[in-house]
Specification:
4-stranded mixed beta sheet, 8-stranded mixed beta sheet, Carbamate kinase
Length: 301
């Protein structure tokens, strides 16, 4: 079975954890163990989020005022290299006989995507309301609630085309475990002259993972995060987990934009397009989710 595994940025740096390299390495070691267990029985391609990481890099870049802060497309590329390196290393430690490679991946978006006018994608650390409002005033950020705290939000345009897809396909056909489309990919647009140019955005990792899984004709898509399942009426006394559900049934519910809503949309898009299955749940439950014993499984019927 061909499985695309999408690791959430909050699975690699969990909510409330310090944004430190040692903490991230510890979490990535856990992720590599879960991936290795799946890779023993299936062909896997790995992608990952970067919300906490790219936000931290943006803060670090802004702290040095002798140069203009690097744009988000460049910071996205930096996180792809950083997280890809750590994943490669730990996957090698768990699967020393396997070949693992990271592909820095550009993903084309539409320059006229309305998402550029409505930022929704959370990046960076958590803030109190007072901290968030102060930073918004100082830096011109847009901030929004993410759970019980506030985070910076940035545009998240729809992914249209994976530029390096032919290379990824060749590597997959050669039996290589590929880490790619990290953080949703590096956002680029095609100019009037046909050239590519980076843009200020962070593409949603889940929607990009669905596009990747569809293009690779994968059998399954796993969207792994720090929440054990998809819940109805999340963060309320009436919250209930959904265990097996169809895209049609999911239309009856509303989910938080910028967090669970894109995961549900990605799962539904993959299932409706391919007829495959999509699982949503905790990183450490990856194998059980694929087997139908944990998380939320989205199926065609």
């Amino acid at each position: 079975m061909q499985v695309v595994i999408a690791l959430g940025g909050n699975a690699l740096l969990q909510r409330g954890q310090p944004l430190e390299a040692e903490v991230q390495l510890r979490n990535i070691t856990i992720a590599a163990k879960a991936i290795a267990e799946l890779a023993a029985a299936h062909k896997v391609v790995v992608t990952h989020g970067n919300g906490p990481q790219v936000g931290l890099l943006a803060l670090q870049a802004a702290a040095y005022n002798r140069v203009q802060p690097y744009p988000l497309d460049v910071l996205n590329a930096e996180t792809e290299g950083m997280i890809g390196y750590l994943l490669e290393q730990q996957l090698y430690n768990h699967l020393p006989e396997s070949q693992v490679v990271t592909v820095l991946t550009q993903v084309e978006v539409d320059a006229k995507d309305p998402a550029f006018e409505r930022p929704t994608k959370p990046i960076g650390p958590l803030y109190s309301q007072d901290e968030a409002e102060q930073l918004a005033a100082e830096k011109g950020w847009t901030v929004a609630l993410d759970g019980n705290a506030y985070r910076r939000v940035v545009p998240s345009p729809t992914p249209l085309r994976i530029i390096e897809l032919p290379t990824i396909q060749l590597l997959v056909q050669g039996g290589v475990i590929v880490v790619c489309v990290g953080g949703g990919g590096i956002p680029v647009v095609k100019t009037s002259t046909g050239k590519l140019s980076g843009v200020e955005a962070v593409i949603d990792k889940d929607l990009a993972a669905a596009l990747l899984a569809i293009e690779l004709k994968a059998d399954a898509l796993l969207l792994l995060t720090d929440i054990d399942a998809v819940y109805t009426e999340w963060d309320s006394p009436k919250a209930q987990p959904l265990h097996q559900v169809t895209p049609q049934q999911l239309k009856n519910y509303t989910f938080a934009p910028g967090s669970m809503a894109p995961k549900v949309a990605a799962a539904c898009k993959f299932v409706n397009t391919t007829g495959g299955v999509a699982g949503i749940g905790r990183l450490e439950d990856a194998g059980r989710i694929l087997a139908g014993g944990a998380g939320t499984m989205v199926t065609h019927s």
